[in-house]
Design goal:
single chain; alpha/beta; Spore Coat Polysaccharide Biosynthesis Protein SpsA, Chain A; seven-stranded mixed β-sheet; two-stranded antiparallel ribbon; 15 helices; 9 strands; globular
Amino acid sequence: MRPRNALPSISPGPSRLRRTLRRGAAAARALRPDSVREAADATAYVGLVAAVVVAGYLQGGMTVVVAVPTVLGVGLGSIAILQAVMACLSVSGMFGCSALALFGQRAVEETDRRPATGPTVTAVVPVHRDAAVLHRSVESLLDGRYEDLRVVVVAEPDDADSIARAREYAAREDRVEALVNTRYPGSKAGAVNYAAEATDSEYLAVFDADERVDPRFVSSAVARLDDCDVVQGRTVPEPDGLVETVAYYESVVLGDLSQRLLTLVTDFTMAASRTIVMRRSAFDAVDGYDPAMLTEDYAFAFDCYEADLDVVELLSQASTIEGAHSVADWWGQRKRWMTGYAQTLHDLLVGCRSPRNYRTLLAPLLCAGSVFGNVFMLSLVSKAAVLVVSGAVTWLALPVATLAGAALALRVGDARRDRVDGVGLAWLATPLVLPLYSLVGIRAAVAYLFTWDGEWYSVAKGV
């Protein structure tokens, strides 16, 4: 018998030890690659991440000599600063100028013209296991201010719930039609292309099933199409949870800000497969969306760019969408996006063999910036460590304040327009989005080279 005051034994019994060992063995088996390709994939990913981190640290510790310009005839010589400090200045300058460009663009945006009638717009809503959220897009489109609108819901043949839901709307609403994608099944691109072939309206639009569309958007887009070929709107993930909040600020940094200066310099504007209204002639000019591409929207944007179509943004009337609801969905969805970017880059490089114009040669460089920019973002973590070790940590305040400040300004704007509930404090953590997304991007690029076999990750919606 154990004495009354004796401490309980902390030594595991034989059965508990066996269970622990079995769980450890199961975890080890789950991590073990099933093939040589998977082993090469995992090794390459870990090796590349480690190489970027180490190289970033070594580079950040280098001293850069900067010549100071002459002022009033007096030469001020030069100064020596850490490369990590230069990285802070570069990131701050890029995102600071991008924020100014974004807010300036929104300030001068024309939204006064909003016709209620005009050319018929076919709003295509592709659905795949989206029956629970289909009401968001269909009902918000029908509630919009543009009356000459026809909603075409395109469901996949194996999705009985979405087919039934679409047919319910079609039976109840005169402006809704339900189609089953029997012609090009298996992809969002195929669904949109099928709807385009089955209709003949002058204008086409595409929306995701989970979008809540601003009631003014279609009307304003129709007015803008008098002077352009494609109108691209903004989408805002609803930050109603931890993972969803990460998705929101990721959208702010990497969607709203990161490509702003690139657009000004190169005239490349993203033309996606949601929140978009276009002339049918523009859609036909690029043969629609490519079902073979994992990110059909990114490939479509470059097709529009090479065809010299005029794509404009309409930022002030944003749609809200569901964000990823779990870490697994967040990771899987971003990995799919970045794998698709790598696939698009590959396709653009092949296209350079027979260039159509200078944009055919410029497009791969722009796409490569999205793919390989993740390497730069991850290296910022190492350079931040250099500043901490060197006692120059105060320099970090500059990029942190720039990113957080821009995110706060956009969050306040979205809150004032009732797109999000309140402001909160999560904007303070916005800089963490860069290395997180960088890890996913590197993972996707490596997977595309070693193990990707065409699979398409689908996230849960309506949960």
